[in-house]
Design goal:
By secondary structure, this protein is an alpha+beta fold. The chain has helices spanning about 1-20, 30-40, 55-65, 70-75, 90-95, 125-135, 140-150, 155-165, 170-180, 190-200, 205-210, 215-220, 225-235, 245-255, 260-275, 280-295, 300-310, 315-330, 335-350, 350-370, 375-385; strands at about 45-50, 75-85, 105, 115-120. Among the domains are: about 20-135, Glutaredoxin (3-Layer(aba) Sandwich), CATH 3.40.30.10; about 300-385, Serine Threonine Protein Phosphatase 5, Tetratricopeptide repeat (Alpha Horseshoe), CATH 1.25.40. It is about 65% helix and about 5% strand. A 4-stranded mixed sheet has the order 2-1-3-4, with helices on both faces. Helix 12 (about 215-220) packs across helix 13 and helix 14 runs antiparallel to helix 15 (about 260-275).
Length: about 375
């Protein structure tokens, strides 16, 4: 019996090691989690996610299970993981103004946000984020207090601007501008990086600075990144322009900024613009024109537009185009979320066999990664009834 006893100890040790390499998320309701935070005098880390969010799934798979992340978060935080579209999620999303996923919130026992960030963070970034949340002098609530009291030290302003923009705080761009006013040279790599992050509108001195120094920005970030930034700034500047005037202004701005690439950028803008204003027919035509002419090697981009077609387009010929984008997305990166999109598109087209195959494959991937696949299971149940 002795060898069996030794084997059991080894298995127990392995189990304990595995248990320490994943963040332990609370299963109680939000009120109970708040009470636990008060009792233990710990901060809550809340992963505010959505089941369809690709970056959320990547963090669950690659970050929350990291060997250094799990013990750090388990020791220092009360951890919660809540789908913002289910159960208590919608109410919490309204309370904490969750507008994108993943939103990473650090909340005290009174329910007040002390620190936050948005988007995918790799293990190193996520570890540093947690360290800042634990430090009253580094987290957003502490930085805001210093700024309110009049602290205008350049290094402080830089760190505050960075933290605010990472959290998509409303005053992030204001803090960045306050920092830049202290700088005589905007062309340092650090300042150019901040400008790239802070610039929002084509109606700003930051937009003009980027255009005037386009070659320097392209040397740091590449042509495609800078072009994408310019496009977002142009879109953000169109809030007060309506109808055909929008396209006229866009063409003018793109021809000024990127005369050699203006046709592609204008085509990309058109599909995004029609999507924003809810003109589904024009959106579909513009998207098909764009991808037919220029294509894409971005799995997430292809999946996002394929899913948008599933939700908003009924024309079968258009949906077949979306199937092609979803299939290429899967070819580029075989993931749960894009297989789910492919299954949904096949289902909408009434193609039972490929829909079933794609849904089952999506569920298989989700099981391997421990992801929630309940929505795909519901879809599969509907497919089987076809």
């Amino acid at each position: 019996m002795k060898p069996i006893f030794i084997l059991s100890i080894a298995m127990l040790s392995t189990f304990c090691l595995q248990a320490q390499t994943a963040i332990n998320f609370e299963q109680d309701n939000w009120e109970s989690i708040l009470n636990k935070a008060k009792e233990t005098d710990k901060i809550i880390f809340l992963d505010a996610y959505a089941s369809w969010c690709g970056p959320c799934k990547r963090m669950s798979k690659d970050v929350f299970t990291h060997a250094e992340i799990a013990p750090f978060y388990n020791d220092n935080f009360i951890n919660a993981k809540i789908d913002m579209e289910k159960g208590e999620g919608p109410e919490l999303a309204r309370k904490y103004q969750v507008r994108a996923y993943p939103t990473l919130l650090y909340i005290d026992g009174n329910g007040e946000v002390v620190h936050q960030a948005l988007g995918y963070h790799d293990p190193k970034q996520f570890y540093e984020l947690g360290k800042k949340a634990l430090d009253p002098s580094s987290r957003l609530s502490g930085l805001n207090e210093r700024y309110t009291k009049g602290d205008r030290d350049p290094e402080f302003l830089y760190q505050y601007a960075r933290a605010s923009m990472n959290a998509m705080a409303a005053d992030g761009k204001e803090i960045a501008q306050a920092y830049l006013k202290t700088q005589s040279d905007w062309k340092t790599p650090r300042n150019m990086e901040l400008i790239m992050d802070a610039a929002e509108s084509a109606n700003s001195d930051l937009f003009d600075f980027i255009l005037d120094n386009k070659s320097e920005f392209e040397a740091l970030y590449g042509e495609e990144v800078v072009a994408g930034k310019v496009q977002r700034m142009i879109i953000n500047s169109l809030g007060e322009v309506e109808g055909d005037d929008v396209l006229v202004q866009v063409e003018s701005l793109y021809n000024r900024a990127y005369p050699e690439n203006a046709p592609r950028l204008i085509a990309n803008f058109k599909m995004n613009y029609y999507g924003m204003i809810g003109d589904n027919d024009q959106f579909a035509k513009a998207a098909i024109d764009y991808f037919d002419q220029y294509g894409s090697e971005d799995s997430n981009e292809l999946n996002n537009f394929a899913w948008a077609f599933y939700e908003n387009v009924d024309n079968e010929a258009y949906l077949e185009k979306a199937v092609g984008w979803a299939k290429k997305s899967v070819e580029l990166s075989d993931e749960y979320y894009n297989n789910d999109t492919l299954a949904a598109l096949y289902y909408k087209l009434g193609q039972k066999r490929p829909a079933k195959k794609a849904a089952e494959h999506a569920i298989e991937i989700a099981k391997q990664h421990g992801d929630d696949y309940s929505s795909t299971q519901s879809l599969l149940d509907q497919i089987k009834k076809m």
